[in-house]
Amino acid sequence: MKQLASCFMLAATVSLLTGCADADLAGLERTLADIRRSPGGQPPVVSVSLPESPPLKYLHSQERSPFLPPEAVADNNVSRSDSALAPDQQREQEPLERFQLQSLRLVGTLRMGGREVAMIASPDGNITSVKEGNYMGTDYGRIADITGQEVRVTERVFTQSEGWQERQVSLVINENNE
User: Phi and psi of 174, rounded to 5°?
Assistant: First the structure.
């Protein structure tokens, strides 16, 4: 058995060394020399001529540009600051105004000194207590009412066609996602 294993190892070694014999190194050297002699530089540029196309007339040139957001297009009859609903841009922002309202979570409410107070969890992991009149969300949302299970917020949003508008949104306690 030991002799059989020795013969097998000898045969494997011989076959490995046979594969390393004449690898046609002379042919490889000729190919490399041909590559070295060939001219370098960029490959030739092939240009394809396209047929002439007739000019097209754009029929919607008087409309809003589709390449600009609606807020970037100036509208002569609607101003961002002339409305009674326009938010106070000079007011110092409150901590929860850095986050979109959808990312804030109502975790609880309690009564302190005869007033309802809501506990709001923000995406950065902080819990902030808010009361009626505080601001939250990126759309100038102001807390209008706090009940045991809900915080009602009045947001102010600007549309190019209608100017500043108010919308009512609510945060509710989600007992499944605590």
Answer: -105, 105
The verdict on pTM exceeding 0.85 is: no
Q: How far apart are CA 178 and CA 174, in angstroms?
A: 7
The full 3-state SS of 3-21, as one line of letters, equals HHHHHHHHHHHHHHHHHCC
Count CA atoms closer than 13 A to 26's CA, side-chain side: 1
Q: Name the percent of the chain in helix, strand, coil, to the closest 5.
A: 25, 25, 50
Convert the pLDDT of each residue in 127-157 to its tens digit.
Answer: 999 999 999 999 999 999 999 899 999 999 8
Q: Annotate 142-153 with b (16+ C-beta within 10 A) or e (fewer).
A: bbeebeeeebbb
- Taking the C-alpha atoms of residue 174 and residue 7, their distance in angstroms, rounded to an integer, is 77
- SS3 label, residue 67: coil
Fold classification of 94-172 (topology level): SH3 type barrels. (2.30.30)
Span between the terminal Cα atoms of the chain, in Å? 71
The domain limits of the chain are 94-172
